[in-house]
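User: Please work through this fold.
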Amino acid sequence: MISVLTGFAVVAFAVIVGYVVGRTGILGEDGQAVLGRLAFFVLNPILMFVVLSEADIGTLFSSLLPVSALAALAVFLIYAFVARVFWKRSVGDVWMGALSAGQVNGNNMGIPISTYVLGSAAYAAPIILMQQILFTPISLAVLDGVSTGEKRWWRALGRAVRNPMIIGSTVGVIVALTRLPVPEIVMEPLDFVSHAAVPVILISFGMSLNGQRALATRGTRRDVLLATALKLVIMPLLAYAIGLAFGLEGHALLVVVVLATLPTAQNIFNFAQRYGVGYVIARDTVFLTTLGALPLIFLAALILG
C-alpha cells in the first residue's frame, strides 16, 4: 500500500508544480493553453499507442471489459438524465459532466494502482482500450460539433476519427492484435516521449487551479457534486453488482471494483480545455475525485481483498 501512496504522491507533486508555475506566471498567459494543446495533439496520441500496443490481448478482451463498460454507461445515463431533464443543462455541459462521472483515470492512476494493489499493470489495459476506442471518438465528435456548431454528425465523427489521439490508439490496438514487431529504433523514441504526457497534463491541470477553489463557481456546484458522487460511490457499487451478475468473484471482482473507483481521467479536463466546454465541471470533478479515491480504494481492497 505504500507504493499506492507513492503513486498518489507523484500525481500530487506534479499538480503542485503546475500550481506554482501558474501562480508565478513563468510561462506567460498562454502557457496553460500551449501545454494543453501539446498534450492533446502530440503526447497523448503517442502514449496511447505505446500503452495499447504492448497490452496483452487476453487481458484486453477479458470479462473485465463488458463489466467496466456497463458500469460506465449506466453512470453516463444517470448523470445525463438528471442534468438534462431536471437541470436543463446544455448538451456540451451534460456530455462533459457525464464523462467526468464515468471515465476513469486508467492510465497515470490506473496503471500504478493495478500494479501495486491488483498485482499487474495489465488490468488497466481493458479500461484504456474501452475509453480510447469507444468513448473517446464519440466524445470528440460530440464536443467538436458543440464547439463548432456542426450539426451534421457524420462530419463531426469524421473529424474525430482523424484526431491524433484516436489514430494513436487504433494503431496501438492493431499492433497488439497482429503482434506486429515494432523495431526498437522506432519504439524507444516513442516510449521516451510518451513519458512526458502525464506530467504535462498534470502540470497544466495544476496551473488551472491558480486563483480557483473547488465548488467556488456558482451554477456548477450541484453538477460537480453529482458527478463526484457517481464516480466515487455509485460506479464502484454498479461494478460490484454487474460483476456478480457476470459470475465474477474473488480477485476478479476486486479488479472491476477498484478500477471503477479510480478518479476521473485528467483527459476529461484536457478535452474541456481544448473545446471550451464544461471546463469548471471537469476541473472540479477531477480535483475532488482524485482526493477522494484513495481512501475508497483502500476500503475496497480491505473488504474484497
In short: The CA atoms of residues 61 and 249 lie 18 Å apart. The chain has a mean pLDDT of 86. The longest helix spans residues 279-304.
